[in-house]
Structures are given as C-alpha cells and as structure tokens.
Backbone:
C-alpha cells in the first residue's frame, strides 16, 4: 500500500455533479463508495471538502457581502457538505466523524489534532469541516493545515482534471500534463494547483500533494495502489 494515512481534499464544485448547484446524490454516493473501498484496505483517512457548490466567500465579497461574513458563510457551506458525506458514508457501512473548526456541537465535535488521530486509529473516517475557522483562508489552506497536523503521508487532491497541466486543459487544448513537479516550479509558473498559502505550507512542511481526477470511479483506489494516474507535487 502506497500511503498509510492520507488527507483527501474534495472539491465542493464536484459535488454538484451535472446539476450546476447543490449536492448531486449520485456523485456523493460515488465518493462514499470510493472512500469506503480504500478504508477497507486499512488506510487512515481524513477529509476536507470545499463549499463552492453552496457558497464561496470570495465571490460573495465581489457582490457586496462583507468578506468576513462571506467567508463564514463559506465555512458553514463546508459543514453542510461534510454532514452529507458523513451520512453517505454511514449508508455504505463506513464509520465517520465530523469535526468542526468552529464550536458547533451537536452538529460536529470541535476539532483537535489528537481527536482526529484517535478517531482514525479507531477506524473512523474523519471529516474536518469549517476550514481553518478563520476568514481569508481557503479550504485549500485548511487542507494543508490539517494534513500537516495529522501527520499525513500525502494530500490527495481530488479534482475534475487528471493532474497538473502547463495551462488549463479545459481552455487550452495544447496544455500538457506533468507526471511530477516541484512546489517551487508550481509557484514560479503560477500554476493553479492550490492557492499560494496552501502550496507554501506544504512546501515548508514537506507534505506532498497528489492531484488526480476523483470523478472517475475507481481512481482513488488506483492512487492508493500506486498507479500513476495524476501528478505528484513535491520538493
């Protein structure tokens, strides 16, 4: 097995599926089954999921929302997605626990590193919600922070594309894919892997990032099995 403990970053937008908004139950259930598949192999899993399918603080700020309130709304959106994923995991027989960066009992328990690690070691999937609990930080940064804290072997960034490209492959047909790339090259080329704060945190703490297409069923297990289907970002 390639990785023993992972931080899985999921995109809120991907949860929309074909709907264009909200939560597509079919996509949610596909994710739950893929996560259970690797959990059954003995992988310890923490998950951070975005909230862009419900509300994105930064775009809200552009429409007149106060940035701090907008970001707080975005944090609440991630909690909604986390509860949905927890419910879907329960339906396929996979125990999970929702931890929140803001006190929100009884919706979720307040996050601590030790609570997260203890739950993973007891065989639960841990879903870390509400970002870092602070405005001006994205869920990318929240993922980096949680991945470093829980001492994950890698951050698996599940997206709609199958890796990191020289340009946006959805807009530029000449874009070519990297099999692996360094953090510093991502930064110098200005590639949109994650936001700058998240990349710098991973670089400073040597947390590798593996970018792959989570929307293809079976890909998550392929990553764990060591198949080269995405892009590794490393030192």
Residues:
């Amino acid at each position: 097995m390639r990785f023993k403990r992972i931080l899985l970053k999921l995109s809120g937008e991907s949860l929309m599926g074909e709907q264009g908004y909200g939560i597509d139950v079919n996509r949610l259930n596909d994710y739950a089954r893929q996560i259970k598949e690797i959990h059954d192999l003995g992988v310890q899993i923490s998950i951070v999921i975005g909230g862009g399918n419900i509300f994105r603080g930064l775009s809200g700020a552009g429409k007149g929302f106060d940035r701090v309130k907008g970001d707080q709304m975005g944090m609440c959106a991630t909690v909604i997605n986390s509860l949905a994923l927890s419910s879907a995991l329960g339906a396929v027989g996979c125990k999970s626990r929702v931890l929140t960066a803001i006190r929100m009992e009884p919706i979720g328990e307040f996050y601590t590193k030790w609570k997260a690690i203890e739950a993973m070691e007891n065989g639960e999937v841990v879903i870390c919600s509400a970002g870092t609990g602070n405005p001006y930080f994205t869920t990318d940064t929240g993922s980096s922070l949680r991945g470093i804290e829980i001492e994950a072997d890698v951050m698996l960034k599940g997206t709609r594309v199958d890796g990191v490209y020289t340009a946006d492959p959805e807009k530029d047909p000449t874009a070519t894919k990297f099999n692996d790339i360094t953090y510093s090259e991502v930064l110098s080329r200005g590639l949109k892997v994650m936001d700058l704060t998240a990349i710098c945190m991973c670089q400073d703490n040597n947390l590798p990032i593996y970018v792959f297409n989570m929307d293809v069923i079976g890909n998550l297990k392929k990553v764990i099995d060591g198949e080269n289907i995405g892009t590794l970002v490393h030192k």
About this structure: The chain has one domain: 5-234. Strands lie at 5-10, 44-49, 96-100, 109-110, 125-129, 154-159, 180-182, 209-213, 231-234. Residues 48 and 231 are 19 Å apart (CA to CA).
